[in-house]
Amino acid sequence: MDKASPLFLFHQPKFIFRNSDTSVMLFEHETARIYFSRIGESLISLDRAPFGGFVLVPDLKKDDLLPCLEKILSWSRSHGATTVIIRSFPDAYHPESSALIAETLLAKSYNILYRDITQVIDMKRGDVPELGVDKKRRIRTAEAKGFQFRSLSLDWLEKSYALIVQSRVDKDYPITMTLGMLQQMFMLFPNEYMLFGVFDNDRLIAASVTIQVNPEVLYCFYIGDDLDYRSYSPVTFLVNGIYGFCKVHQFRVLDLGLSTDKGTLNKGLYRFKKTFGAVDSYKLTFVRQI
Fold first, then answer.
1. Most buried among 1, 50, 145, 217, using CB within 10 Å?
2. Are 242 and 196 in contact (CB under 8 A)?
3. This model's pTM is above 0.90
4. For residue range 177-200, what is the model confidence (pLDDT) as tens digits?
């Protein structure tokens, strides 16, 4: 793995400029580039994506980010922006560039605004996830009952979304996207946005919207299950199936998603993901006052 951060889906112009009404600014130098949204007196990288942050060239050296940072600072001072917020990617996605970015920003008067935790599974560990005893029992039960894991076509998105909404309402989690928004993303990125499900005969009982962030990282963006089946934990069978998909397609990281909200830990969600053998990966948000 070289010292350049790979081009993640959320860094691609097609994703950044997917909405025609979105006002986005690009700052770049020969060594790095970064996109910002301007909201009031703040520059935010980026506000309508899981993260923003820098895209770096290969073999980046310690001070190579500085020209780009100076451009951001100079523009902010001349255009009345008083706050710069940089939402970086989870460090497990590319540890070397994540460490370099953090070291540089902290040295240039940026502070850590939020230290969020996303929980990831290292796909190099083995052919099956490192499940707790309870998770293994639930998978055996699901197999005995004939549950089936499947990769789904877009035709199943509406039913999948209904399960996701039902689950999030039950747990008092926010619903950040409408069905129409999700349908748009699947149409724009048919190779990166994927849908997986678990069935009891013909009944969909769990579903997940996952995103191929790049060829090494698969991100579980949304997961939901049928409340009538919760005692069987079909989500466990679902994640186990997604793990198998990752092994076949040689992903390096399976990201189970954030277990914090602006740095505040959801202890129940955190413990649940731990039972899959997930480990912590920090996703830092940096801020500087101009």
1. 217
2. yes
3. yes
4. 999 999 999 999 999 999 999 999
